[in-house]
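ingest -> validate -> predict -> emit
validate: passed (alphabet ok, no gaps, 228 aa)
predict: started
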Amino acid sequence: HEQMTAAESGSLCRQLTMSYAANARAAVPFQLVMGGVRMSDPHSQLGQVLARSNWLHWTRLIRVDSGEPWAVFPGKTPVYLCADSPNELESLEDNCVYVIGGLVDRKDKPGFSSARAAGFHMATAKLPLDRYIRLASRQPGNEGSGDLTTLAVVQLLLLYRETNDWGVAVSRCPALRLAPLRKYVKWLPPLEHLNDCDRPPDPLIRGASVEYETQDLVIAHKRELNWQ
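emit:
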């Protein structure tokens, strides 16, 4: 585990805090698991930053200090979400654990998450975003597709789980219509009107039920923040 800079740790902490808050207020929340923080290591910079954010008081969270976080769900199939996966995620399955990783970096790193998934001999899938948006790379001159933030992926999964409609989930995703991603997103038909829309995104709807259901979501944070 490489050490992150203070700025990277702070950025990752903000992403995780907002992801946790989005899940807590979602209509149909996931069971969240966080691993790779190294809580027992007093020199873990990320652990120190999260401690200042009172993450030990996040009640709707399972923390894994060592080992792989998806092992919390024995008998379920882990699926690593990668933008360059050949497999499109059509729906969320009860027997799957969805793993999100991202790199604390301002540069796109194609293939990074796929390589990590291959190292664990894990199935991969990508969100069906190409039907609704084009996401430009953040690097000038790079014609490839850009990367989503971890927060955007969490919001998209929560909204899809609530609505069972990827088009609605993408159009309502706050992270896609706010900085820093907004300027890299081009909306495609039938959502092209959002290219010139200044109306703020709809918030996630707070559900009447706070009970967790059977699907699970893992955030495996090493040095990662962007979904690739």
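Residues 206-214, 221-228 have pLDDT under 50 and may be disordered.
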